[in-house]
Design goal:
The complex is a heterodimer of chains A (383) and B (307). Chain A has helices at residues 8-12, 64-72, 114-124, 129-142, 158-170, 188-205, 216-222, 240-245, 250-255; strands at residues 26-35, 38-48, 53-57, 79-84, 87-88, 99-102, 176-180, 208-213, 225-230, 233-238, 260-270, 273-278, 283-287, 298-303, 309-311, 321-331, 335-342, 347-353, 368-372, 379-381. Chain A is of the alpha+beta class and 383 residues long. Chain A folds into 2 domains: 2-98 and 174-250, Rossmann fold (3-Layer(aba) Sandwich); 258-381, Nucleic acid-binding proteins (OB fold (Dihydrolipoamide Acetyltransferase, E2P), Beta Barrel), CATH 2.40.50. In chain A, the strands form 4 sheets. Chain A has a 6-stranded mixed beta sheet, sandwiched between helices. In chain A, strands 13-12-11-14-20 form a 5-stranded antiparallel beta sheet. In chain A, strands 15-19-16-17-18 form a 5-stranded antiparallel beta sheet, with no helix packed on it. Chain A starts with 7 loop residues before the first helix and ends with a strand. Chain B has one domain (74-305): MetI-like (MetI-like fold), CATH 1.10.3720.10. Helix content of chain B is 73%, strand content 2%. The longest helix of chain B has 34 residues, at 83-116. The mean pLDDT of chain B is 87. Classes of the chains: A alpha+beta (383), B mainly alpha (307).
């Protein structure tokens, strides 16, 4: 896998975002964008470092595309400041920014050949013709489109067009590349393949990528860090693992992957462990790490479906156990998804890997089962 | 049973509902274009005579069994020999070409502005382009007489201002013809251009800006080439009727502004030389077939190039 092929020094070094000495490449300071009364982006502050592959993830209308368009210069912030490589870019028009963008629709010029499309940006800079030809040829080689140089965009497949768009946006060697749903228009197989190509290319060229996507799987595979957006605000920034394992809010927990949320009240609050009584669960959730929260506050314990075990006999542990009846089974090949109705009536989603061939034969519809999990699994959320 | 057999027989020969539907417009064109055209063609080959109708028949019974066919090429020879027709054709093409160019220069910015206007304004502006069609074409050209003549609106206004003390002669000049042509045919230029510019994908301009292209250059290298089909369609829609235009040069032009439409009118109504008039019409038609064929080729190529 391409992701494990990351250059070693990078992996060993402290990531830039944890290094207080590191100078951010892109900074947003309380950037706001309003369209009339509608606030598309609300006071977003963000630091993105060189060579990062930063994903802005969110549902439609969350403001991620507006944020990207402000980085490109197509929209001017209503307030706030935006710098790229230390230079204030807030009011600089797009054609003067050291930034290139790959559009969701690719926006290839239909009247130009692949070659002319890729050369377009270089021509604007008045680069010598021989130099343009060489760089275009190199770029087309890199995206494996050399033999299609003379074709027009309408003579290419979706995947080929995507690569032309990528070549066109990379040929000017931008320091920052913006990608708007780069894989959105590709079918599933091609998308997976292209994901790894993108990551490879990004590492090869050392370009900083900012990617907008609504597809959490895409964000997880591609990015060094993810910024989850909701209603114009960035609700959490972190590595894919941070976001998945330590969601900071119910919204993030539910947006990324599947999650079971159990509402409850703190009954034991110690620095290294807490107990939460949850009527929804019909038992006590024991968590092996401390949680900062007001006493007696309403809390939610979030448990991922794959972290819940399913058994027919009652496990020995007293806490972190629930009893229910299997209502639905979905066999997905590599794993099976079970929807279990607890005695309290709450539906819980559990996934179990099909480690051996007949693993799912034991559990059938309407079968009473016990659910249990490790005390490290729940994440306690207060909102 | 017989109805069924007939249907089967028709179907076997490739006649079905689809061909029937296509046949209707073909039949229309055949009846109202091709047949009259053939009649005109027939007259063009006949000889003038002082009678009603004022031409001799092509086919005549010479005796009981012999049909005499008289084809008279004289009318066409006449067109070639008399320099009047040549200069009328050339002048018509010149006037039409310049009018087309002027319409393009005036119409492109208008079409562009409408296409880029806010959606609420677009329909209003569009209506304003079409609105003049609600008044008779003839009346609108007459109105220009009132505006341009020596004691017309413009001259009176300028004299009142004191800018001039002698009226500027505008009516019955080529200038007046161009004013009338551009005024009358401008909507035909604007409509196809607007249709083309309006459907253009604006992210292409964002992409150009993103690649370092300033707005003016983006217009020249993206918008303009992509609007070529609109430019060609608009130019043809102006050029073709402008070549044969009769009313505008007759009302606004001077006695020496020679245009083929006027010549045709004179031959037909004043000289009652139907055969010569028909020959002029046939030659004009052939003259216009070339640009129409050109238009179709360009549009065919554009359709292939579109995505």
């Amino acid at each position: 896998m391409a992701i494990s092929a990351r250059p070693a020094p990078n992996a060993v070094r402290t990531p830039a975002w944890n290094d207080p000495q590191a100078v951010p490449y892109v900074t947003l300071e309380r950037v706001t964008k309003k369209f009339g009364d509608f606030v598309a982006v609300n006071e977003v502050s963000l630091k993105i470092y060189q060579r990062e592959l930063f994903c802005l993830l969110g549902g439609s209308g969350c403001g991620k595309t507006t944020l990207l368009r402000m980085l490109a210069g197509f929209e001017t912030p209503s307030s706030g400041k935006l710098t790229i490589d230390g230079v204030d870019m807030t009011d600089i028009p797009p054609y003067e920014r050291p930034v290139n963008m790959m559009f969701q629709s690719y926006a290839l010029f239909p009247h130009m050949t692949v070659e002319q499309n890729v050369a377009f940006g270089l021509k604007q800079d008045g680069i010598a013709r021989a130099e343009i030809a060489r760089r275009v040829a190199d770029m087309l080689e890199l995206v494996k489109l050399g033999q299609f140089a003379r074709r027009k965009p309408h003579q290419l497949s979706g995947g080929q067009r995507q690569r032309v768009a990528l070549a066109r946006s990379l040929v000017k060697r931008p320091k920052l590349l913006l990608l708007d749903e780069p894989l959105g228009a590709l079918d599933k197989k091609l998308r997976e393949h292209t994901q790894f190509e993108l990551v490879n290319l990004q590492e090869q060229l050392g370009v900083t990528f900012v990617v907008v996507t609504h597809d959490q799987e895409e964000a997880m595979t591609l990015s060094t860090r993810i910024g989850v957006m909701n209603q114009g605000e960035i609700v959490q920034v972190g590595t894919p693992k941070d976001i998945y394992e330590y969601p900071g809010s119910k919204f993030v927990a539910e947006f990324i992957g599947n999650v079971n949320l159990f509402q409850g009240r703190m009954v034991e609050d110690l620095p290294d462990r807490v107990r939460i009584d949850s009527p929804e669960l019909g038992g006590v959730i024991y968590v092996d790490h401390g949680v900062s929260s007001a006493p007696d506050a309403q809390l939610w314990a979030a448990i991922r479906p794959e972290k819940i075990n399913l058994s027919l006999e009652r496990p020995e542990q007293a806490d972190n156990v629930a009893h229910g009846v299997v209502k639905e089974i979905a066999y997905l090949g590599d794993m099976s998804v079970y929807l279990v109705r607890l005695d309290s009536g709450k539906m819980v989603r559990v996934t179990q890997p099909n480690v051996y061939r007949h693993a799912d034969d034991l559990v059938t519809w309407e079968q009473p089962v016990y659910l249990h999990w490790h005390p490290s699994s729940p994440v306690v959320l207060s909102e | 049973m017989t109805a069924y057999r007939w249907t089967q027989r028709l179907l076997r020969r490739g006649v079905n509902g689809r061909t029937a539907v296509i046949a209707v417009p073909y039949f229309w064109l055949l009846l109202f274009f091709l047949v009259p055209f053939l009649i005109v063609l027939k007259i063009a080959f006949s000889e003038t005579q002082l009678a009603s109708p004022p031409y001799q028949p092509l086919l005549q019974w010479a005796s009981d069994r012999v049909v005499e066919v008289k084809l008279n090429f004289g009318n066409f020879m006449f067109l070639v020999e008399d320099s009047l027709y040549w200069s009328a054709y050339l002048n018509s093409i010149k006037v039409a070409a310049i009018s087309t160019l002027l319409c393009l220069l005036v119409g492109y910015p208008i079409a562009y502005a409408i296409a880029r206007a806010k959606a609420v304004w677009r329909n209003v502006l569009f209506m304003m382009v079409i609105l003049p069609f609600w008044t008779s074409f003839l009346l609108r050209v007459y109105a220009w007489v009132g505006i341009l003549k020596n004691n017309g609106l413009i001259n009176n206004f300028l004299m009142w201002l004191g800018v001039i003390d002698q009226p500027i002669v505008m009516l019955q000049t080529d200038f007046a013809i161009y004013v009338g042509m551009v005024y009358s045919y401008l909507p035909f230029m604007i409509l196809p251009l607007y249709a083309n510019l309006e459907k253009m994908d604006l992210t292409l301009l964002e992409a150009a800006a993103d690649l370092g292209c300033r707005p003016l250059r983006a217009f020249l290298s993206i918008t303009l080439p992509l609007s070529k089909p609109g430019i060609v369609a608009g130019s043809m829609l102006v050029f073709i009727p402008a070549v044969g235009e009769f009313i505008i040069p007759a009302l606004l032009g001077g006695p020496d502004s020679l245009m083929i439409g006027k010549v045709l009118w004179t031959e037909f109504f004043s000289n009652r030389a139907w055969p010569v008039a028909s020959a002029v019409a046939i030659a004009l038609l052939l003259l216009l077939v070339v640009p129409i064929a050109l238009l179709q080729r360009v549009q065919g190529a554009a359709a292939k190039g579109a995505h």
